[in-house]
């Protein structure tokens, strides 16, 4: 997601800066209509032929097209904003659910009849595992919205590889659970007799010393050497084994000449029947980022949420959590499901094709006949005027089409990867909390609870006794709650006085 002016952003190549705008998408059409305007001006100046239409409908059609394009852009931006709100909900609910599990599910559980007594270490492993599944849920939503099916990704598989794969004791393909069965592609067959053939994922860290690493990225215009420092999100994930290579966590379509000269894509259409099966490319590769992928064919987020629901059901049935916490856990999972439904609605409900096609054809006709109507007033200025009109109208139309589905890899789409990494950091911060006894830090010599009216520490206040509070400046008042209330009142007056300009 581009949040600042890319032209003044350091560290970006000119290709990336250009891709952050819509210039590389509309320049052929702008050039075409500028060519039409050049033809009209040249013919009118150097020949006796007069290319001129009365501009009777120019104002009316321009106003109508402007309103329709404005509606198109506004509706697309509304979907963009709604997608951002839904991801804010995922971040918030992930944080809330992790806090509920970490704080409200106890680690010291009294033994109950019919249940195995778990040690505090086992309880902590249990809670941390479920919080890791919350992170896996967010990552699976990211891949699902991008049309990337399955679970074999560098940022997802290490978080869920321990989940059960079969319905019972038998281990055959027919007994595989839906999430795993839909993820197998036949190209890398799994050995059902063994859990993990010895192949290491790319997330296995050799070290976490944060040293600089030289990397080389390849694109249409050659290789560009870059130096990466510290940023390697998969390096902090579990080291596991898998029977097949894992796909990258982020896999945008590579930039080619077709992205900068779009009309050359027509050659791919003509040569498609002559390609072999091995050379065949799908519509996503054919049209690059212009083609919006379908949602994933295996609903991994739902599968992961079922395990979270099952854990919540377990702690409720076992009486491990209090009723209020149990209600909060169930409600949080319900809001997760609502958010997923809304994200699916945004991702798989584009603007009707008939509306888009009619709007674009109407705009093309308007821009084509525009030079014929403005030549008598502008003469040679018809050329830049037509080019500017094409740039203006086509730019807004292209922006609406680009942000209509904000979950893909366009630079102006939502940065789902950073959202997932933010969730990962926050979940680890939550589990780093030690859940101390409040008395361990409340009554310490660092705490000044009644400042600014009373700047004594809690330890100093308690030295005089737990029921005999007396402010040093309160003369003639009996120790106790009366003095305490006067201190709190004085604190309000001081704050109110010193915080107003």
From TrEMBL:
Pfam families: Bestrophin_2
Primary location: membrane
GO cellular component: plasma membrane
Compartments reported by the entry: Cell membrane
Chain positions covered by the region annotation Disordered: 183-216
Topology with respect to the bilayer: Multi-pass membrane protein
Name of this protein: Uncharacterized protein
Species: Marasmius oreades
């Amino acid at each position: 997601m581009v949040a600042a002016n890319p032209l003044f952003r350091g560290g970006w190549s000119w290709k990336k800066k250009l891709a952050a705008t819509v210039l590389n998408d509309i320049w052929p059409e702008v050039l075409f209509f500028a060519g039409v305007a050049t033809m009209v001006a040249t013919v009118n100046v150097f020949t006796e032929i007069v290319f001129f239409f009365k501009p009777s409908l120019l104002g009316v059609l321009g106003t109508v097209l402007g309103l329709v394009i404005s509606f198109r852009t506004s509706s697309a931006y509304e979907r963009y904003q709604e997608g951002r709100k839904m991801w804010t909900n995922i971040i918030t609910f992930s944080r809330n659910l992790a806090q509920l599990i970490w704080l409200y599910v106890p680690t010291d559980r009294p033994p109950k009849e019919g249940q195995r007594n778990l040690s505090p270490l086992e309880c902590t492993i249990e809670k941390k595992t479920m919080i890791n599944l919350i992170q896996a849920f967010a990552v699976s939503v990211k891949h699902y919205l991008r049309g990337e099916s399955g679970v074999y990704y560098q940022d997802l598989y290490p978080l869920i590889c321990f989940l059960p794969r079969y319905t019972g004791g038998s281990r055959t393909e027919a007994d595989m659970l839906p999430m795993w069965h839909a993820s197998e592609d036949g190209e890398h067959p799994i050995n059902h007799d063994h859990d993990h053939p010895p192949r290491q994922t790319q997330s296995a860290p050799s070290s976490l010393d944060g040293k600089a690493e030289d990397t080389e990225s390849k694109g249409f215009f050659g290789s560009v050497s870059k130096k990466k420092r510290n940023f390697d999100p998969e390096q902090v994930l579990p080291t596991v084994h898998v029977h097949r290579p894992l796909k990258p966590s982020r896999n945008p379509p590579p930039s080619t000449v077709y992205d900068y000269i779009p009309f050359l894509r027509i050659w791919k259409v003509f040569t498609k029947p002559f390609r072999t099966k091995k050379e065949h490319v799908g519509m996503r590769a054919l049209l690059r980022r212009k083609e919006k992928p379908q949602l994933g064919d295996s609903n991994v987020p739902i599968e992961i949420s079922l395990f979270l629901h099952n854990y919540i059901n377990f702690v409720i049935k076992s009486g491990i959590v209090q009723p209020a916490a149990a209600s909060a856990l169930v409600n949080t999972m319900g809001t997760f499901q609502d958010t997923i439904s809304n994200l699916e609605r945004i991702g798989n409900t584009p603007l009707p094709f008939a509306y888009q096609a009619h709007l674009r054809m109407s705009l093309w006709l308007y821009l084509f006949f525009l030079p014929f109507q403005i030549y008598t007033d502008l003469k040679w200025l018809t050329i830049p005027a037509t080019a500017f009109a094409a740039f203006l109208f086509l730019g807004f139309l292209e922006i609406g089409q680009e942000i209509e589905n904000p979950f893909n890899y366009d630079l102006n789409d939502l940065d789902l990867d950073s959202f997932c990494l933010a969730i990962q950091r926050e979940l680890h911060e939550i589990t780093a909390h030690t859940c101390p006894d409040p008395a361990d830090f409340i009554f310490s010599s660092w705490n000044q609870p009644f400042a600014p009216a009373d700047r004594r520490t809690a330890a100093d206040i308690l030295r005089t006794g737990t029921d005999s509070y007396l402010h040093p400046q309160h003369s003639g008042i009996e120790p106790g709650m009366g003095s305490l209330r006067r201190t709190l009142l004085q604190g309000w007056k001081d704050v109110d006085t010193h915080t107003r300009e």
